[in-house]
Predict the 3D structure of the following.
Amino acid sequence: MIYMDNAATSWPKPKAVYQEMINCMKYYGANPGRSGHRMSIMASEKIYECRENIARLFNIPNPLCVSFTGNTTEAINMGIKGCLKKGDHVIITGMEHNSVLRPIKKMEMTGDISCTIVDADQEGFVSVKDTVKSIQNNTKLIVVTHASNVCGTVNPVHEIGKIARERNILFMVDAAQTAGILPIDVQSMNIDILAFPGHKGLLGPQGTGGLYVREGLVLDTIKEGGTGSNSEEPYQPDFVPDRYESGTLNTPGIAGLNEGVKYILKNGQEEIRQYEKELTLYLLEGLYSIKKVKLYGTSDIEKRVGVISLNIDGKDSVEVCNILDEQYQIASRGGLHCSYLAHKTLQTLETGTLRLSIGCFNTKKEIDKVLHAINHMNGFIS
């Protein structure tokens, strides 16, 4: 199988990810922070080691500001619902994932908040100027996807973060398609809240993700319960990460995630990024040369990640995806990619797109086979 669905979840993982998850289950798979026996302590130590490595990758001063979640969606909901109150105004962009749009729409429908959606252009870029124009007196939060999960376009988070800080507005970044792939520095980017997956660019397993909340910023909780701390009190702890981590953590998953992050730190994020850029450019150039293929997003390789959406002469994207799988053993994704706003912006809400997404374990030989398959696709579509 040629795997080109890394935007959904990366595959394969580094061998150490699988090995450490098995080690955890066999040797220290106890409940972290819930007891003083050695297995529980080992589990707690492994989880803290992962916090430290994530903090190192994102330039987070205090590792305790990293809370683990089950996925990016959970982290986004925690960030949005944790900071917005009745009467607040929030700004989002026309490229946001449904994980951002839907919780905000629910709050907007109840009349608690108001929302402005800043339009993006046909390449998926959000205007900094238009973002500034959307700021109101009661604007509490700006949420921006770092890179589109539909077309891979990278948004100007540095510039928007600077404006948000100058205006005393909270800035939240959805790093679902960039964590582990593009450099993220929460300090230089003025990021107050960062939501990220463990199972995509960070090369960890599914069921892992995280939320960074800037030190000094306190969010309301959307989940309360056992934390292994302050058990003598009936109230949720007010310190991090316990405040945001009720219930038993996914210790085997976090152990695997730790190995994924270590792989990135060891091999160099810039080196991995450079390799993925080369593959992305190679695939894009090949696709541009094929007749009847329409591509979405920017052609500027420096302003996109390896997420490529296309359509073949108006053919059904799901059907194309199925043929790639059945005839060519190529894993891709067809249809709508949980991103109503992005598809509306790109005018693909009715057709969807075929998405090919590159990971650090793909090869040029695989790209050649993908291009060959698409080049001959029309002969197999009725």
